[in-house]
Amino acid sequence: MKKSIIALASVLLVAFSSSAQKVEFEEYDLDNGMHVILHKDNSAPVVVVSTFYHVGAKDEQPDRTGMAHFFEHLLFEGTKNIKKGEWDNIVSSNGGSGNATTDDDRTYYYEVFPSNKLATGLWLESERLMHPVITQKGVDTQNEVVKEEKRLRVDNQPYGRFLEYVKKNMFKKHPYKGTTIGKMEHLDAATLDEFLAFNKKFYVPNNGTLVVAGDINIKEAKKMIQDYFGAIPRGKDIERNFPKEDPITQQINAKAYDPNIGIPAIMAAYRTPSMKTRDSRVLDMISTYLSTGRSSVLYKKLVDTKKMALQTGAINFSQEDYGTYILFGLPQGKTTLADIIKEIDEEVVKIQTDLISEKAYQKLQNQFENNFVNANSNVQGIASSLARYHVLFGNTNLINTEIDIFRSITREEIREVAKKYLNPNQRLILEYLPEKK
């Protein structure tokens, strides 16, 4: 009887999430190529205005790393109609909040306003695109800001450079080998003309997606969008032809040193396919199975039961062109780094050899259902997802249908994908060590 109740509850959860979580949206292109996505939700008097530009760290020149992230800061400096330092004041005085983020593949700006301030949000984002003021003074100001951010979040952060060292060893040709924050000497060397050229190339309407989500009138929003963005001239089309990586056919061994740590760590990293592939989603499920929560396989074995590790986990770091699957652990007591890898490898081999249990599989399905519900639970998350699915996946409606892909993944697929990608001859073993005194 208990099993029947659990089964019924699972069916009801799927049925509920399939219907109640459906996100309605409308999308179209302006004549200048800017893609527009509108989502109406009148449940609260709030509106999100966001612009998602298809430019990230991978679009930089090899000797000018950090440009994309730098522009995330620089484009808050001001415009022809917004004085230097006034951007945040305008947002807060109108009851709003905002921020921006950059990664290897994209740059995302957003504001959240009371719904009667939609015009203010659209004006701000159109100003950022049409009238940015890029001067040497602004560049110098933001150069210091970015340097301080790098010191705080990377240079002086324990384990803050592990991903940098993983990427450096995993990618030899593709620009993913760099870091989003870049090298400060590259930004120091950049001329004002180079900053202006970067803006002209990538901050054009045909490289941007505008999402307006929340308590809006669709007809009125369309008119305002046309008024604020329609006259911005189209830029040149951007061509991308990044070099392809050669397959990894034998284990890479590397070491990295960090002055901010006292306990070493070990990473096993595998190059995996684009986030757009089905295999990448299967790897998402494998990483959840191995390391999400205290009842996960690696935590329960290495931290809880054997007390060999202070921390352990699995990360499917999926990106537009490639992914990097990382297994890691921090040893405890007399445990060596080799001991950690041996124990992790044993669990990977189990996945490659045997089907995970039906109970573990059902738990995974429940976890992904829960993630799906949470991702679409507020208008800010919906706005971000709509833009991300359109730009990086080429299918906005994945906001509604991606969960169906996860639902259709079988235990057999989990086994086969683990066998395909997570092999010792296809990986990097990185020893991340305290810096020698």
From TrEMBL:
Aminoacyl-tRNA synthetase as UniProt keyword: no
Keywords: Hydrolase, Metalloprotease, Protease, Signal, Zinc
Pfam families the record matches: Peptidase_M16, Peptidase_M16_C
Keyword Hydrolase in record: yes
Domain Peptidase M16 C-terminal intervals: 190-367
Signal peptide bounds: 1-22
Family note: Belongs to the peptidase M16 family.
Protein name: Pitrilysin family protein
